[in-house]
Amino acid sequence: xxYLVFIFFTEEPDWYKSLFPDSETSWSVFLIxxxxxxxxxxxxxxxxxxxxxxxxxxxKFHLVSRVGYGDALRNLNGAFAMVNELKANGVEPxxxxxxxxxxxxxxxxxxxxxxxxxxxxxxxxxLLNDYVEPKTSLAHLEVENIARDLxxxxxxxxxxxxxxxHMVNDNSCFKDILKNVNHKKYDQLYFLHNDLPSFLGYRxxxxxxxxxDFSDRAKNSIRIRRKEWYLDYRSEIVVPILLSAAPEKWPIxxxxxxxxxxxxxxxxxxEYDFPLLRGVADGIYYIILPLTLx
Length: 294
What we know:
Blueprint: H1 2-9, H2 14-19, H3 23-88, H4 95-117, E1 121-128, E2 143-148, H5 159-162, H6 172-182, E3 191-193, H7 205-209, H8 222-228, E4 235-241, E5 254-260, H9 273-283, H10 285-293
Antiparallel strand pairs: 1-2, 1-5, 3-4, 4-5
Helix pairs in contact: 1-3, 3-4
């Protein structure tokens, strides 16, 4: 296109004159080709601009992620110090004290993952509403949110959420973990998805509680689901609160949940986050167990 612009304002070569002998036709071709050339240049500039933004964002994400795991280990030390203090007193703490400690614990987890990912992350602890023996189906049980980080507590202000029955069977994360327990896949006791809007079969009682439904088009369209997404988070990792040393002998008493407002990239990963959170869930097991027995 730029070449044709050049030859138009200089002496036209013989091959150009033979193709467009009519000056009016030649002018029309010039305008069309010039327009297409400008469009092509703009497209290339935008392409390089967004590619550069993507590279910068990816580099930032990977650098923050690498630094974040070191911070995680340091901050978890303080989190477990609070939990161990409850154990060391020798007196069973009150329900309120336990919940406040777990809430502080969730706040530390939230800070760890917000720092590691570079995006707002929330942490919560769900408790099963009944104690069941190991190898007993949990699908009929209800989960209750007993603690979450301070910055996401506003989620509990929604009466639709708090008054809704959150059943294990109505949540893909809890259900998938139970499926792995039943199949004795003890190394896969987690749920992880970094782009929930793209998971067409995803179920969440939090969505049900909002009394909303995706439009018919959105049910089979990832693009529209992303636009109509109703939850505060788009990626999620969940692990059961279970003694990992002998998962076949001890019951699941709840779930440790982490979610992030960002989706579509590797916010959470199974190589590091699963073992880290499994260790966390293992460490708070005996603090939560008395709440289940009550």
